[in-house]
């Protein structure tokens, strides 16, 4: 399962699908609040088709800090370090 997860992160990174990676990480390792924030990010992403310039900056920044929070609070620090290195 972890190998498949890591492979998916690598594949998404290679095609600049960073929001999908964020969603996967938050869905698998985030708490309910973090998951709700990610849902809002995805909703805005879907509504825009792609992010508009100012929205892009704000949502990308929010996504970054959300991921940082989720990854820093993971129990498995080795996996957290591995995930952070891939994204």
Features:
5 helices, 87 residues, mainly alpha
Strand-helix topology:
Layout: H1 2-14, H2 18-29, H3 32-48, H4 53-72, H5 77-86
Helix pairs in contact: 1-2, 2-3, 2-4, 3-4
The gist of it:
The chain is an all-alpha fold and 87 residues long.
Structure report:
With 87 residues, the protein is mainly α. The protein has one domain. The chain is 83% helix and 0% strand. The chain is built from five helices and no strands. It has helices at 2-14, 18-29, 32-48, 53-72, 77-86. α2 runs parallel beside α4. The longest helix has 20 residues, at 53-72. The protein starts with a helix and ends with a helix.
Helix and strand pattern: HHHHH
Q: How does the major sheet shape up?
A: none
Mean pLDDT: 87
Total number of helical segments?
Answer: 5
| Number of domain modules | 1
Task: Report low-confidence residues grouped into runs of 5 or more.
Answer: none
Taken from the alpha-carbon principal axes, the silhouette is: globular
Residue fraction in strands: under 5%
